[in-house]
Design brief:
Radius of gyration: 40 Å
Oligomer: single chain
Shape: elongated
Strand content: 5-15%
Strand order of the largest sheet: 3-2-1-4
Structural class: mainly alpha
Distance between the termini: 34 Å
Number of domains: 2
Length: 379
C-alpha cells in the first residue's frame, strides 16, 4: 500500500474532518470583514452625529479656557476632571457599535465558537522550526500577497484623498469655529466613505478566499478517505445508525408497494414476502417486498391495513425469500406452488363475497428440493 503522505490531497474534507477541525477551533475567518464592518459602523455613527460631535469639541475647548483661569484651585481641577470624564464617557459610548460590528461580522464565514482551551497559551506554536515552516505555507504566502496589494491600494487612495482635499482642509482655519467643525467633519465623512467602500470590496473578496484556503488546508487523499470510512464503518454506533436508516428506507418503500401486492406469504412471523402478478410487467409473479423479523411484521401490518391477503405457508415463504430478490420473478420451480396460493387468494375473495364455501389451502404441496429452504439455511 502506498504511503498516504506521498499522495496528492485532491479530495474535499469529509464531514468528520470538518467537525474535528471545528472542535479544535479551526474555522474560516475573514479579517477584512471585521475591519470593513468596523469602518462602516464608524462612518454611520459619525455621519449621524455631526451636530453632537461639533458641540462636544466646542464644549471641550470652552471648558478648557474657563478652567485654565483657575488652574491652581484644587476644587476647580476636580470639577474639570469630572466634567471631561463625563464628556469622554459619552464619546466612548458612541464608539461601541464599531467593535460590536467587527466582532459579529468576523463570525460570518465560520459561525460562533467558544473553546475554553483556546484561552490557555499553546507553547508549541512558538517553536522556531514550526514558525519557519509557517512562513512558507500557502496560507502565509496568500496573506502576505493580500496585505501587499491592500497596502498599495490604500496608499494610492490616501494620496488621492489628500491631493483632492488638501486645499479644503487648509481653508478650514479661516472659517469660524463652528462652521470649521461642520466642514471638517463633512470632509472627514467624504474621505471615510471612500475607504469604507474600498474595505467592503476587500471583504467581499476575502470571505470566499478564506473559505477556499480553509477547505484546501483540510483536503484529504483518497487513501485517507478510505481509512476514515473503514474506521467509521466499524463503530457500533455507526452500524446501528446505518441499520436504522436502512429500516426506515425499507419501511417507506414497503408502505408504497405492499398495497399493490396480490398476496403476502409468511413464516408466519420470521419471514414475509409480498408477491404481485401483473402480466403487463412480467410473465410470472414477482417479489415487491420481503423481510425478516421486524420488517416481516411490518409487511404483514401494511398488508392487513390494505386488505391484502396474508397466507401462512412457512416452507414457501422461506423458499421465495432466499431464491428471489425484490423486483425479481420467482424461479420456475415455484410456479406450481405460487399458482396454488394465488388460486386460493382468488377463492377467498369469492368466499367473502358469498359466492362459494370457504376454501382450504394445501400446505403440503411439493416444493422442489433445489429451492426448498429449511430454518437456518441462508444459501
Amino acid at each position: 500500500m502506498a504511503d498516504s503522505s506521498s499522495e496528492e490531497k485532491t479530495e474535499k474534507p469529509s464531514a468528520q474532518k470538518l467537525r474535528k477541525a471545528r472542535e479544535e477551533g479551526q474555522l474560516p475567518r475573514s479579517k477584512d470583514m471585521g475591519l470593513a464592518a468596523s469602518l462602516f459602523a464608524a462612518f454611520v455613527v459619525i455621519s449621524s452625529s455631526f451636530p453632537w460631535y461639533a458641540d462636544f469639541v466646542r464644549e471641550s475647548f470652552i471648558s478648557v479656557h474657563q478652567y485654565a483661569q483657575e488652574i491652581n484651585n484644587p476644587e476647580v481641577i476636580g470639577q474639570f476632571l469630572r466634567h471631561h470624564l463625563l464628556i469622554l464617557g459619552k464619546f466612548i459610548l458612541t464608539l461601541l457599535p464599531m467593535p460590536a460590528a467587527a466582532l459579529l461580522s468576523s463570525l460570518v464565514p465560520g459561525g460562533w465558537l467558544f473553546l475554553p482551551k483556546k484561552i490557555l497559551p499553546d507553547f508549541s506554536k512558538i517553536s522556531p522550526l514550526k514558525g519557519i515552516g509557517r512562513l512558507f505555507s500557502s496560507e502565509h504566502l496568500a496573506e502576505t500577497g493580500k496585505m501587499t496589494v491592500k497596502s498599495v491600494v490604500v496608499l494610492v487612495m490616501l494620496w488621492i484623498s489628500l491631493r483632492n482635499n488638501f486645499a479644503a482642509f487648509l481653508g478650514l482655519q479661516a472659517l469660524p469655529f463652528k462652521l470649521a467643525m461642520n466642514e471638517g467633519l463633512s470632509l472627514y465623512a467624504s474621505v471615510m466613505r471612500n475607504f469604507v467602500i474600498l474595505f467592503i470590496f476587500f471583504a467581499l473578496l476575502d470571505v470566499p478566499l478564506a473559505k477556499a484556503l480553509f477547505t484546501k488546508g483540510l483536503k484529504m487523499t483518497k487513501q485517507e478517505l478510505k481509512e476514515e470510512y473503514k474506521n467509521q464503518e466499524g463503530k457500533p454506533e455507526v452500524k446501528a445508525r446505518v441499520r436504522r436508516l436502512q429500516r426506515q428506507l425499507a419501511m417507506g418503500q414497503i408502505r408504497k408497494v405492499v398495497p399493490k401486492a396480490n398476496v403476502v406469504i409468511t413464516n408466519p412471523t420470521h419471514y414475509a414476502v409480498a408477491l404481485q402478478y401483473d402480466s403487463s410487467r412480467a410473465a410470472a409473479p414477482f417479489v415487491v417486498a420481503k423481510g425478516t423479523d421486524e420488517i416481516a411484521l411490518y409487511i404483514r401490518q401494511v398488508a392487513t391495513e390494505n386488505q391484502v391477503e396474508v397466507v401462512e405457508f412457512p416452507r414457501l415463504a422461506r423458499s421465495v425469500y432466499y431464491t428471489t430478490q425484490v423486483n425479481q420473478q420467482i424461479p420456475f420451480q415455484l410456479y406450481r406452488a405460487i399458482a396454488h396460493v394465488l388460486t386460493y387468494v382468488l377463492q377467498m375473495k369469492h368466499w367473502r363475497d358469498g359466492a362459494q364455501p370457504r376454501p382450504a389451502l394445501n400446505r403440503h404441496i411439493s416444493i422442489p428440493k433445489e429451492v426448498l429452504k429449511l430454518d437456518g439455511e441462508n444459501n
